[in-house]
Sequence to fold (277 residues):
Amino acid sequence: MENTPTNVSGIISQQAAKPKAKAKTPAQLMQGVVNVEASQALLKNSLKENAGAFTASIIDLYASDTYLQNCAPQAVFAEALKAVSLKLPINKQLGFAYIIPRRDHGVWKPTFQLGYKGYIQLCMRTGAYRYINAGPVYEGELKKVDKLSGEVDLSGDPAGEDAPVIGYFAYMETLNGFRKCLYWPNEKLLRHVKRYSDSYKSGSKIWKDNFEEMAIKTVLRYLLSHWGVMSTEMEQAFKADNVEAADQMIAGDNAPEYIPAQAEEVPAEPEVSADAQ
Fold:
């Protein structure tokens, strides 16, 4: 009889004879979540013929974002359902909506986040707006801000092709004639994010790499939340949009973990005193 391999205790080692089960890939883990009957029924009821495309996009998102893979696939899918309810794509390259991984007391949790393009898309769906726009203001463009009426005159000529950005604007006009414009100089924008944005204060990578996009969203969201048309869908969007995570959109797989004690400084914009205007 052949000798049977044993461990030092004389107990037959069965593990040596059994191959270890191959770990599932991130794509397979997410497929296991979205392909169950209940998930597919929910997607088909909400998205109809677009259910398949959304299923493919959430699988691709989870499979391609190594940072997001720190979160459980079930939790990522649950946050993605907020995008489903708003009928917005979650492809982060498009900029309409994002699923952002964050640490909460040592536990990774995904968070749904609207991009500024998502807000514009929802405004367009209301059918109530004639114009809606937002963007940077370059040195030389600003001629006048009427504090009483709120009118902003940006008809000036920029000071050359490389004119510096001095602030950001957001503008809307409804079909019934109501219009409102906000202009926030860099100083005001910085005061706002220094007060409300923990990730900006900690030196989050997204503010350094995507400062303009984050600044535009900050001003546009403020405009819409105070003077915009609050359709049912828009109210739902404001509830779903995580304000605390608004400036922590992950631009790519190499984005650093949000750890305030080890964060870098944000050198892109100057420091401003609290009483500056």
